[in-house]
Amino acid sequence: MSAKESAIVQFDNVGLRYGTEREVLSNISFTLFPGRFYFLTGASGAGKTSLLKLLYLAQRPSRGGMRMFGTDVITMPRDELPGFRRRMGVVFQDFRLVDHLSAFDNVALPLRVSGVRERDLAGPVNDMLDWVGLGHRADARPATLSGGEQQRVAIARAVIARPEILVADEPTGNVDPEMALKLIRLFEALNRLGTTVVVATHDYQLIRKVPESLIMRLDKGTLSDPTGALRYPPKRAPSGVEA
Amino acid sequence: MPWVIAIMVALCVLAAGGALALSNLAASARGELAGSATVQIIEADNDLRAEQARRIAGLLREDPAVTGLRMVPGSEVAALLEPWLGSGEAVDAVPLPALIDLELAAEVDDAALAELENRIAAYAPSARIDSQETWLAPVLDALRTLQIMALSLIGLLAFAGAAAVWLAARNALGGNRDTIEIVHLLGGSDAQIASVFQRSILFDAIAGGLLGLVLGAGAMTLLANRFAALDSGMVAGGSLSAIDWVILATVPLFAVVIAVYTARMTVLASLRKLL
């Protein structure tokens, strides 16, 4: 198997503009490999969230090519996209919890969408809530949870279905350092199980906690490569992936 | 939403019930009068008129197109005309036509009647045959027009009901946009999201449909009782049969199907705007 074939995400000269404005992302090209841990850094307004939106298929690029899980997602029929989204977990910057659902039901959403039977939900959802320290708040609505608690529910929802790729937009922005470290350890644990993790953050303290991670830096819509993450083959090829 | 559907269904039940009653009325009138005709012999001389009537009756009895014949007595003719001519000696001096009621064979058409009229003209040049269906035709045409109007009304109500559901679904979509986007981004398919709205509209439509059926059927029953009190032979022909009531009971089913289908199409059209 070649490295190119095993790539989980490939961006080829991607550009993104909203309406007739100038491009917010220009000439973005990179390859993400399975089982790697990536940080996406950059100042506010650099285009991190826009790049993540392309990654979790909320947006199509204005130009360029995108392949995910070995498939061209630009020309893919729209009705096949939900199947791809189910293979991802997303932690949104603004959490995007469903207000009228309890913490339990919010975390259970990806499983329900995937067709898991109701009687099989309670075990994994309660385990996940315990893991993020919210087992006692399972019945709480998002409005009654603190910002940090909401963020942990959002993270639990993103990882409950054991995604192949986890995309997190500033996932530790609203939690204390201790919880931030705990969440990063959770991401690392998922990563060790084979999930590719992409975390957007401008918290360099956090990045240092994951020494094996690769870093992509966005600056005014263009991507740079401080750790060789974007090289082909990557500077630090993951074990099991042919470089 | 259930109230809107209930009103639409009640109006549909009334319109459909009206259309069915008119259809029954027309069928009843047509059935009673089909195959019957009246020979009218107009002659000022009483004796000559009686002789012409007797000879024409003799001729008609032999004709295979005629299956039954009744000479209408002069007293019955006078009674029929009494509202217009009054009674008394002065009226007795007015020459009344002689009438013969005919029952015709099923295959007798307008051409056969014209031929029959030519034959009896040899005995009474002023005699003519009036088919009952001919003079009933304008009434039947009017009933048919009313039926078409009732069916058009049903179509308009179905359209208005679908439009109401469309608006309700769009409002619901607007109110739940965030939730829909989240489920969409978590991998929810359009069909899964649409099914949530369908289910919600389904329950509303069932509740509204049943309520509308009760209201509509109640109004129909009330109207039926009022018309029955008129004790008119023609109106009695417009009563609803058991099958008609079964047909009316299916109106809510159609309303539910239209509502659910409209909701589904509205939601799917809206979701297609998302990636």
From TrEMBL, chain A:
Coiled coil: none annotated. It is found in: Cell inner membrane; Cell membrane. GO terms for biological process: cell division. Homodimer. Forms a membrane-associated complex with FtsX. InterPro entries: AAA+_ATPase, ABC_transporter-like_ATP-bd, ABC_transporter-like_CS, ABC_transpr_LolD-like, Cell_div_FtsE, MacB-like_ATP-bd, P-loop_NTPase. Keywords: ATP-binding, Cell cycle, Cell division, Cell membrane, Membrane, Nucleotide-binding, Transport. GO terms for cellular component: plasma membrane. It comes from Qipengyuania aquimaris. Part of the ABC transporter FtsEX involved in cellular division. Important for assembly or stability of the septal ring. This is Cell division ATP-binding protein FtsE. Residues 9-243 form the ABC transporter domain. Pfam families: ABC_tran. Belongs to the ABC transporter superfamily. One of its GO terms (molecular function) is ATP binding. The lineage of its organism: Bacteria, Pseudomonadati, Pseudomonadota, Alphaproteobacteria, Sphingomonadales. It is a peripheral membrane protein.
